[in-house]
Amino acid sequence: MAGLRRVAHGLWWWVTSVMGDHDYARYAEHLRRAHPDAPVPSEREYWRARYADADAHPSTRCC
Fold it and tell me: What is the pLDDT of residues 10-30, one digit of tens each?
């Protein structure tokens, strides 16, 4: 049973990583470490800027 739980947890981690669920937390941590004087945007501001950048600079993507 513990093995099944570990596999399910790993699969869940992979799916959420592929979907970008951890991106904001990783970005905020990067800003705090590498640029301590820079303001950390809210999660909403982060996603708005990310989508605006993706629309302004299209690259290879599935959709």
Answer: 888 888 777 777 899 999 999
